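hi! just following up on the protien thing from before. the input was this:
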Amino acid sequence: MEGAACDAELCRAVTGAPVEFDDASSGTVVSRHWDFGDGNTSRSGAPEHSWSSPGFYDVALVVSDGTSHSTARRTFLVTAAEPKGTCVPDGETACLQDSRYAVAVDWWTGDGGIRAGRVVHRGTNDAGLFSFVARDNWEVLIKVLDGCALNGHAWVFGGSTTDLGHMIRVEDTATGSVKEYSNEPGSPAAAITDVAAFPDGCRP
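and the predicted 3d structure came back as:
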């Protein structure tokens, strides 16, 4: 696959850069259908595709021999070709708003330990998801939104479906400003509606 770097879990690409796909199916192929996760599809044997916005995308290829079909899937993390900050995404850090904002979550275990939340391979340029114990049990959603036209700030909104203690950290990597939002153990997490989070978030 040209234009993307892949490991066992994830493929990585950048916005605007074409990725060359190839159907390596053997046997008779009556039909094929590519879905690139952004509303675009193809029936080509070797399509080329690029994404316009950062985020996670599930790419699926469905191939049929006229009697049965098989499906192959890969998840892509697309980052900004021209980042607005220095955030580098990894298993514990989500990068939002063209890599300007770095989001991480720490949660507290029952024995007093602290562990890092894991980034769920879902999300957009505005929003990231985190899990704690199990990858398929999503615990925290954080959004960083552009409120510049309304009040001259970047906003932080969030929701947590847990009463576990945790700390959410959002850093503006362009300015170094940090906002933290905590939840005490045993308390249902309150919604985050911080419309004054980053007063310098509207500056390049």
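The first strand starts at residue 5 and ends at 6.
Helices lie at 148-151.
cheers
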